[in-house]
Design a protein that fits this description.
Distance between the termini: 11 Å
Number of domains: 1
Number of strands: 10
CATH topology: Protocatechuate 4,5-dioxygenase, Chain B
CATH superfamily: LigB-like
Structural class: alpha/beta
Shape: globular
Strand order of the largest sheet: 5-2-6-1-10-7
Helix content: 25-40%
């Protein structure tokens, strides 16, 4: 059975404490077949060379943020590791770096605390090398695609819009026009599987505002490569903090 490919909008770290928003992730996770492994690529680990993070039990997490409520730094997600999958991943991808001291960042655990709340699915994190071109990230996803038939769920974590300078903490305004423009452009390109356009997002005039840095956009390309021609579904959508898309995606 071929498992789906997911793109998480991991939102602000406070999502981990938000039971209302978390319920949407919980319902989504419950609707899917439980995989043998969750292989996650997050915007928050741009490590080169291509590497795997901690492969043992995830008793420790990275709280890679500051200035948030103290209770957020107490959240735990002790999912099993995926050490037994590391040889298979090297067969698929070639030699990989190993960074055992690199624990799950908030791009991984924040949505997963709701998505798989029992923390019973083994998790491995794969880095998103900053040195890779957009096309190389697409090819990375294509290389991972066969694992979908082996019980691996490929999950990428970023955001369709991510401009920290334009946060509206009051959340009183509707989404800004440039954010809507870029999300619409991306969704149209995804629906027609326009790989060339998605590898050149600067074609959309709103891209510079939507992504002052490319890190949160680029996980989408890994998902696109892994998804192939599979149909696309929006699982969660909407806006928060004025310009942040909550669009979460599933292929297959």
């Amino acid at each position: 059975m071929k498992l789906p490919v997911l793109f998480f909008c991991h939102a602000a770290p406070t999502l981990a404490l938000d039971t209302q928003a978390g319920a949407e992730f919980a319902a989504w996770g419950a609707s899917l077949t439980t995989p043998k492994l969750g292989l996650v690529v997050s915007a928050h680990w741009e490590h080169h060379p291509l590497s795997l993070g901690h492969s043992g039990s995830h008793q420790e997490l990275l709280y890679d943020f500051f200035g948030f409520p103290e209770e957020l730094y107490q959240v735990q997600y002790p999912a099993p590791g995926g050490a037994s999958w590391m040889p298979r991943l090297e067969t698929v991808l070639g030699p990989l770096g190993r960074v055992e001291g690199r624990h799950l960042d908030h791009g991984v655990w924040v949505p997963l605390v709701h998505f798989w709340p029992l923390a019973d699915v083994p998790i491995l994190q794969l880095s998103l090398p900053k040195s890779f071109s957009n096309k190389a990230l697409l090819q990375l996803g294509q290389a991972l695609a066969p694992l979908r038939n082996e019980g691996v769920m490929i999950i990428t974590s970023g955001a369709l819009t991510h401009n920290l300078r334009r946060i509206d903490w009051s959340n009183r305004q509707g989404p800004e026009a440039w954010a809507v423009e870029f999300e619409d452009w991306a969704m149209q390109a995804l629906q027609r599987i326009d790989v060339e356009a998605l590898c050149q997002p600067e074609q959309c005039p709103a891209y510079a505002m939507a992504h002052p840095t490319a890190d949160h956009y680029r996980p989408l390309l890994v998902a696109l490569g892994a998804a192939g021609q599979d149909p696309l579904q929006s699982q969660i959508q909407g806006w928060e903090m004025g310009s942040f898309s909550r669009r979460n995606l599933q292929w297959g």
